[in-house]
Each structure stands twice: as structure tokens, then as C-alpha cells.
Amino acid sequence: LDRKKAIDEVIRMAYAKEDHLSEFPAFLTYQRSGLNLIMQPQSGETLPAPLKRYIQALLKENMEGPYGSEWPAEEKVKKREMVASEARYIIVRQLVEDPGKHDGLWRDGGDPVVSFVQFRFLIDEEIPVLYVYELQLEKCVQKKGLGKFLMQLLELVARKNNMKAVLLTVQKRNLAAMAFYSKLKYVVSSISPSRVDPLVVLKNYEILCKTFDPEAKAKLEVRKIKLDRSIESAAL
What structural domains does the chain harbor? Predict the structure, then answer.
């Protein structure tokens, strides 16, 4: 009971912060590869209408392909997740002299949004974790180091708020994303469907993780992998 209370308090304290970015001033701007970007915090329950429209448009642009026929149902789920009170965002804007010349998805004036991250603080396997719900970049800012930069920022936010791991879900069809996270040292988690029970019908996604301490590693990376090996040995 004491352990549960302590973990609940870690999550409560993480959500109590209004701005998770201000603690990392070096990550508030991104000026590389011809980009001039700023990072802004946002919460799901206070998303203005223009950001809602943009998020829906970018999700459709990037994820309709990987989800295939499942996209219509998944799109409805993502619309609900988008405005949840637990949802926290990093909104990435491009500083431009003439916003009217921007040819991306943003249509609502001011410096255009070109990317966003949605994350939450959760408890998984009795471990406090930062779960990345979405990491979405427009094509104009892809392959310029921004994705890696944002993941590094999320890992810093996780550590600063006493989270013991970062978790995320990736569609297996999204080969580029799978390769991207592999380069960042993310591994298939023990709670991913393919690890929990590889004998059932395979799911179309994997849960990936990066852990920050031995307990998280044992629960989120190692435990069920050892079980799988014991099953293989018994079969032999």
C-alpha cells in the first residue's frame, strides 16, 4: 500500500506542473538544418480549435497509411485521446517572416505549427512511466534531426519527473518509425503483445521502451523475455 501511494504521488506531482518544458531552456528552440523552431507546452483540455484541426489533419496525413483499413476506427479513438485531461503536448512552431507563404497543413495564421508530441504520465507494471502517445512531424521538417531532438526532450522530462521509463506504441507497418526508434535504443517491451503471448494471433503493433533503472528494466524489458526462452527450452 505504501508503495502504491508513493507511485501515485509521483504521477500526481508530474501532472501538477503546468509547463514541463521550462526546466530545459536549451530545448525551447531548434535551429539546425535550416529550421528555426520553438517548442510550446499545451494540455489536451485547453487545446484551441485551430490546434485540434491541425492535429487531426497531421494524424490523418501520417497515420492513415500505416493503419490501413483500421484507420477510420482508430481516428475516432485518437480524437478522444487528443482532448483528454491527462494529455500533455509539445507544440512545435516554425518562425517565418511571412506565414502566408507556408505551404504546410497549418491554416490559421501566425507562426505555423509543423510538428507536435502528445505524452502522458502513467503507471505500467507498477512502474511510473512517460508514455508517448504521438510524435508527428510534417514532411518539411522530417529527416532533419527534429524527431531525435524531441525524443531526447521527452526522456529529460521523464527523468526530471521521476519516471522510470519511456514507452510508446508503433505500428509494425511503419517501418521507418521502427527503424528510427531502434536507432534511439528503444526495444520491444515485455508488455508488447508479441512478448506477452507470441502464440496468440499477432497484433499489428509493438510497444517499445527505454528504461532508466534496474527495476524498470526487469519489469518492462527482461521478465517475460526470460519466460519466452523457458517455453522454447521446454518445447525442445
Answer: 1-221 (3.40.630.30)
